[in-house]
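#random but structural
TW: two for the price of one
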Amino acid sequence: MATLYGRAADNYVLWEYQKQFASDSNISFNDLDHALFQQVTIEHIFAQTPAITFPAAGFNDGDEYAASNNMVGNLTLLEHREPNLQQQADNKPPTDKARDVYPRSRIPDVQSLSQSINAHGFSKQCIDARTAAFQTFALKRWA
């Protein structure tokens, strides 16, 4: 299982992923923007506290939800200062975040997530697919 949360290097690892994601997607991203790097924190796409009734979104129960919560496919970076987008996204369902918060982010993956969630929703299967994509990136980047 590819969990990524609670370690000091998590922001750096996800920042490196943003660089590659932007490059692969032909999205402009200044990876040397230290001020932006200092403004980001880990964002859980599905909130750490479930806001859904199970079964839903590909999860059979709360245990399955909890097991997926810190998987890298459920994580991205989001600004937490000026503006505090992370606070605005806190504990909202992915569809609300994609509509109201994510479009204002300067992080490439979050901008793409907003469009994808608005078009197709977000589910456990999305977490699994994003986790697999991140694992492929990590093997190329650090192997």
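TW: number two ↓
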Amino acid sequence: MPPPNTDRSASTPTLTPPAITPSTAGSCEGDSFGTSSRAGLVPNPHIAFPKLTPLIQYLDSLRARADLSKLSSLLQSLDVTGSDIAGCCQFGVKGYRRNTIARSDWYELLALCWRSADCTPIHDHQGVSCAFKIIQGVGTEIRFSQTPSGLIRPVGFIEMNPGYVCAAEDADIHQVCNMQAAGTDLVTLHMYSPPIIAMNTYAFANFISPDAVASYIHTVPAFQSSFEAPSATGTPDLPC
């Protein structure tokens, strides 16, 4: 895997934009929770969140998939705190919540809000340039790679402090979590180009052979046997 805080590719294939139905709302609100929640759009995000204006102006100009290095550079230079986007930071009750700030056929800009122990699925970035910045709290990124067996393996992790920028696309596989102590929240600012439609998600195998089952009396809740792997399904999960 590449070193932290660097783009993993700079390819910018031209795509047919996905169909998106515009919506507006008086504030950044959504009607569902968890990994698939989508919030309503802010009618004038550059007014509601003036520090995001340069970012939104660039995103609104897109007519094709954004270059990952450009997204990363914009986030690096962005001076934003939690108070600057507080009006769009709402937390879920069934996992982390995705609050949409602005969106078009070619991008989606969101504030993601995480309670302690909230995690994305392990996922890749099929057809999408993704970059995000840590606004508040400390996030953890766990990186994975494919193996000849068809299984994936963890290859490293990094604790992401405020200001850290993570960039990924296409075959990059990772998981993002809030592993801070209970009661400690995480807020991240995310850009996707184009908006996520579907990605491949993965899980670890947890099969115990009949010959060895007596040796495994206790299980750890983190990865229960309900996980089946290797899997790479184009499910409409909307991970980070």
